[in-house]
Amino acid sequence: MEVGFLGLGIMGKAMSLNLLRHGFKVTVWNRTLSKCDELVQHGASIGETPAAVVKKCKYTIAILSDPPAALSVVFDKDGILEQINNEKGYIDMSTVDADTSSKISEAITSRGGRFLEAPVSGSKKPAEDGQLVILAAGNKALYDEVLPAFDVLGKKSFFLGEVGNGAKMKLVVNMTMGSMMNAFAEGIMLAGKSGLNPQNLLDVLDLGAMSNPMFKLKGPTILQKNYTPAFPLKHQQKDMRLALALGDENAVPMPVAAAANEAFKKARSLGLGDLDFSAVFETLKPIGPSSS
Amino acid sequence: MEVGFLGLGIMGKAMSLNLLRHGFKVTVWNRTLSKCDELVQHGASIGETPAAVVKKCKYTIAILSDPPAALSVVFDKDGILEQINNEKGYIDMSTVDADTSSKISEAITSRGGRFLEAPVSGSKKPAEDGQLVILAAGNKALYDEVLPAFDVLGKKSFFLGEVGNGAKMKLVVNMTMGSMMNAFAEGIMLAGKSGLNPQNLLDVLDLGAMSNPMFKLKGPTILQKNYTPAFPLKHQQKDMRLALALGDENAVPMPVAAAANEAFKKARSLGLGDLDFSAVFETLKPIGPSSS
Amino acid sequence: MEVGFLGLGIMGKAMSLNLLRHGFKVTVWNRTLSKCDELVQHGASIGETPAAVVKKCKYTIAILSDPPAALSVVFDKDGILEQINNEKGYIDMSTVDADTSSKISEAITSRGGRFLEAPVSGSKKPAEDGQLVILAAGNKALYDEVLPAFDVLGKKSFFLGEVGNGAKMKLVVNMTMGSMMNAFAEGIMLAGKSGLNPQNLLDVLDLGAMSNPMFKLKGPTILQKNYTPAFPLKHQQKDMRLALALGDENAVPMPVAAAANEAFKKARSLGLGDLDFSAVFETLKPIGPSSS
Amino acid sequence: MEVGFLGLGIMGKAMSLNLLRHGFKVTVWNRTLSKCDELVQHGASIGETPAAVVKKCKYTIAILSDPPAALSVVFDKDGILEQINNEKGYIDMSTVDADTSSKISEAITSRGGRFLEAPVSGSKKPAEDGQLVILAAGNKALYDEVLPAFDVLGKKSFFLGEVGNGAKMKLVVNMTMGSMMNAFAEGIMLAGKSGLNPQNLLDVLDLGAMSNPMFKLKGPTILQKNYTPAFPLKHQQKDMRLALALGDENAVPMPVAAAANEAFKKARSLGLGDLDFSAVFETLKPIGPSSS
């Protein structure tokens, strides 16, 4: 199977290597073309522009860093639109907002092309190991055709229906995560202030029905006050805001998520927005972080 | 090692059988003595009264159904107090409130006896499999001496310090659980109302960092509206109330737990108190459960 | 003093009559011109179009029903922009969102005109009695010049700084109102469920430091389940959402407003959005309104 | 009409003077008897002990500082119980908890006496001016008989039914107050952080439907960071806790009060418990009060 691949950042590089390793013919492009060299050593061809990649390949996958980059490869000169047509499929695996995704979808489909949004859950390590979770939405026939590629890239892929549903699913997941993190933080603080050893709480939780990788990972770092950002608090709060807005549109009351969102806002007001989202723990302390 | 064992309900029967199976000499007592027969077939001796068991055994373990039963075996005629002394240890594994535990502790220790409270996390199946988690507090020397028994009964035991800390740990754990269940319920409802398939959300969550046995167990039953009580909602709400009271004593703000508690109270007001605590999901529905 | 006046709805008619009664020369325009007749009987002149009014008058006041109407009188054919110049002042007293207000402001000022947004607090009765509260923002010199008109229209006017601040002030006020209404509703429900007579609570509140016209007005109607909309619940919820968004921009945690917002969302999910905002009381009831 | 009067603190002195001024014959007692002198100058008689007062007077009113003092005058040697009988009525106007009130009620009625609890709303100034609000509960016939005294002491009295309802009404009122104060604090903070002048918000609120004496009094002091305690924050939080507990008993969800309670707890954790309850405003600030 032959695919185009746009974007060779941390994620894109790992993913295109995986495809090559599994026998796919891959034509790569990257804004800084020199980044293509390593891929070429592993058997990739090079496309000079996004348009050139699409011209050559029936299926083109992209994973770009942000909405402007995602829009640029589509709409700019030598972009995808110049070569898209009813024999081509475009799969955007970047994490972008629903508006950006819709704009790209409309442009592709209005020229007869087929489109899938397919944001992923998982970062560098799962990308290297082919263990991503893929949240695809858009053209179902295209989804079925590129499944062999998804099977290489991820441990599981979902087809979620119309364009936008991939982004929505990420919001619901991240909202649940934000509330869970607050539940955990309050538990740790209550244990400590009640004369219990918080480490014991972590151990007890880990032995029971609530045991999960996030608690296992974040519990010890919270106790060490190590908030090196894996997922920045301000991004977590933004996702909770967007999830609450989604609930607002659909008249879904979410009192616990709303309370969690306010805790993250409190953390932002304390200047913790760039730290890891587990730093919401600091909002429960008697005194602001400056003096603790 | 020889131990007395008081209370042969679902938990006590499984636990005493485990002790017998691992070579402990066990003298059992139960309010309804006929319940002792099966244990006798497995090698247990019978004590006629709690006092008789204590008289015979250096260590006596009890697991009774509720605070009145726990108090009764200690304070009533033929109760433990009649035979307790400085050579005896009493280990109460019942789930009781801190006041009950303190009352028992004071009575035992004032007569020279040694005392451990040791409530467990886990129900019938873990009891049978020796996979309980034991939250012990009180006399440390006694804890060390009965560790061989705890090793048979549980996969892990904790010594948490002074009497009361076992009960507190359970509250902190259950509070975290109640907030997590609300986070989960809101996520499922938001998914459904936003045009996503809630089953997809369960699958995505199960593949990620939040994956945990509780979500795995309760997700499907929530989608089936099956609220057969494993842990009744009214007990969950009571534990959240007590955890919030513990936070109040120690000036710990817990806004997310407070919001979750109100959701459980809303559920109680809808008549759902006797259902499983996952029925808090119903409070998020457009119309009360009577018409849904 | 001569002023133009655009829009003769309930508010505009009462306000322009007040100006006439106090000796202002008023040139009126309304989309349905026949509505001008009554004003003419009280001494008003008629302008054929918004542009004609602006051409004739140094100051033109408008109070339109909604953002599209507010934009239309400015941007459409025969609209204000055709005659605006550096000798003219335009005062928009409509209640519109900040974006609409900014769009109008930019168009007016880019042509040299001066602009004030001036939404009002108060409805029909205060408009008739000249007892409005005017929340003006924009051009301070223009504000000072039209103060004689504001003094006739309102009991008090505020100059709040740059364009947008008038809309923001309304949001802050309405957010406070929404939280207060929830506080009140919870109090009434708690009184009733605790065996107290809710009417006694209303009387006690009315005799103390919290006594206010809103409680006095809404208390009896809540007890009668009379939710005839004075301020529709869905508009209250929208204002809370916008106020929370404003707080989000500025990293202001507002846990109580967030909880109140969720209660209003719950009410919307129960189908109460078109009723009065005091219908949030229904969310506290044991069973949904359909069966109560 | 002749009444006994026990307790001549700030409140009791003002109240007994009012009774004398309106022609009542008053027999006073105070733990420190010298405090009776001023009353004697205004025409009062002195009773040597509570029992002596009750022996002399058909109706005895008490207003003591706290529950132990309230219990002491009833149960101690020379206390009320020694002379109470079916021709006597005892009216306790102290602010005590429901348990204390019940204990006193049972003791009085079991000896044939009649009892009213009658806590008041209002402090020194309203006491002097006869403008208290009286929340009476207990024996209705006794209430009717002492109405002439209540009419002198208060601007309004309520008969609320069975003993305990007076205390409950105070909790409901104070819960509403605590939520309102949070709504107000959040509004002031949002105004300030959004570029509005908070003083303008106070002025706008004061001109509208939410205008109330509490906002009028507390708004300016909040802006001055003047938290001299009129009603200590820790007492406000305690009343919210008790009101939430009352709601818990009766399955009343109160999400806004719960969020407000957590804000007061946060304030306590910041060391603000002894300041005025309006100091909850400080919890909304970017940095803890130590560094602001």
CATH top level label of the largest domain in chain A: Alpha Beta
Number of spatially distinct domains of chain A: 2
Helical residue percent of chain A? 40-55%
Estimated share of beta-strand residues of chain A: 5-15%
- Element-level helix/strand string of chain A: EHEHEHEHEHEEHEHEHHHHH
Let me know the CATH homologous superfamily of the largest domain in chain A: NAD(P)-binding Rossmann-like Domain
Q: List how many beta strands of chain A DSSP finds.
A: 9
Query: What's the number of helices of chain A?
Result: 12
What is the subunit arrangement here?
homotetramer
Show the helix and strand layout.
The structure is a homotetramer of 292-residue chains.
Chain A: E1 2-6, H1 10-21, E2 25-29, H2 37-41, E3 45-46, H3 50-56, E4 59-62, H4 67-75, E5 89-92, H5 98-110, E6 114-117, E7 120-121, H6 124-129, E8 132-138, H7 140-153, E9 154-159, H8 165-193, H9 198-206, H10 213-223, H11 233-249, H12 255-269
Parallel strand pairs in A: 1-2, 1-4, 2-3, 4-5, 5-6, 8-9
Antiparallel strand pairs in A: 6-8, 7-8
Helix pairs in contact in A: 4-5, 8-11, 8-12, 9-10, 11-12
GO molecular function, one term (chains A, B, C, D): NADP binding
Active site (chains A, B, C, D): 170
Pfam families (chains A, B, C, D): NAD_binding_11, NAD_binding_2
